[in-house]
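Narrative of accomplishments. A recurring question from our advisory board has been how the design workflow behaves on a single, concrete structure rather than in aggregate. To address it, we present the structure tokens for one chain from the evaluation set, followed by the sequence designed for it. No filtering or post-editing was applied between the two.
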């Protein structure tokens, strides 16, 4: 996939096949993607008069979550929002493997002054964040101040 100029970016959530059970060998992978920071396309195309102006922080990759329950494989109703929010307890096990992903043009601020980061912790995730293992990752024009946002714990 190619992700450009996203709000909370991409992330993965894994639930076990049996609701309420732990999946001790859970693994998710994210391979061969390009994640771009803010694009040249302006967030306020009409100088703030009627255009879409985004002052919210942005993120390329949201930390993945492993939960003890999830939606049905064939849902009968719309999912609750925000989509990144977990509706089940987290689990302690699991690991995230990220192969050959490329992060391009990440500066500390967007054109409108919003903060942006390559990596962010999911704000509604569990108290545990499973290991995220990065292999053959490329950083192209990534400012050190734009690398990661780790929120103050609630």
């Amino acid at each position: 996939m190619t992700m450009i100029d996203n709000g909370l970016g991409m992330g993965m959530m894994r639930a076990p096949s049996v609701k309420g059970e732990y999946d001790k060998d859970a693994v998710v992978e994210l391979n061969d993607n390009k994640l771009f920071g803010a694009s040249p396309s302006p967030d306020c195309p009409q100088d703030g008069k009627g255009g879409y102006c985004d002052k919210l922080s942005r993120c390329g990759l949201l930390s993945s979550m492993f939960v003890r329950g999830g939606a049905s494989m064939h849902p009968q109703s719309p999912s609750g929002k925000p989509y990144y929010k977990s509706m089940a307890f987290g689990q302690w096990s699991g690991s995230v493997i990220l192969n050959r992903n490329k992060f391009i043009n990440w500066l500390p601020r967007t054109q409108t002054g919003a903060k942006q980061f390559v990596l962010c912790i999911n704000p509604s995730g569990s108290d545990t964040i499973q290991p995220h293992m990065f292999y053959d990752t490329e950083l192209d024009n990534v400012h050190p101040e734009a690398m990661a946002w780790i929120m103050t714990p609630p």
